[in-house]
Amino acid sequence: MGAPPYSQRSFVLDKMGRHVYEQCDGETRVGQIIEAIQEEYQVSQAEAELSTANYLKTLMGKGLVAMEIDREKR
Prior knowledge:
With about 70 residues, the protein is mostly helical. It has helices at about 15-25, 30-40, 45-60.
C-alpha cells in the first residue's frame, strides 16, 4: 500500500480483548475461550459469547488472527 517495509502497526486491546487474543494459539477452541471469559470476568454465558465473538471479529478484520472451522465436529 505504499508504506515502507519497515513500518509497523500497533493495536491496543483492553484486558478482556488481550485475554481473547492470547488464547488464539491454534489449539484453544472458541468454546474454551468463552468459558474462560465467563469464569474470569464473572459474566453470563450470553455476555461472554457476545464479547468473545466481537473481539474475534475485530481481530480477524485486522488480520491478527484467523479461524479454522472443524467441519467434522459439526
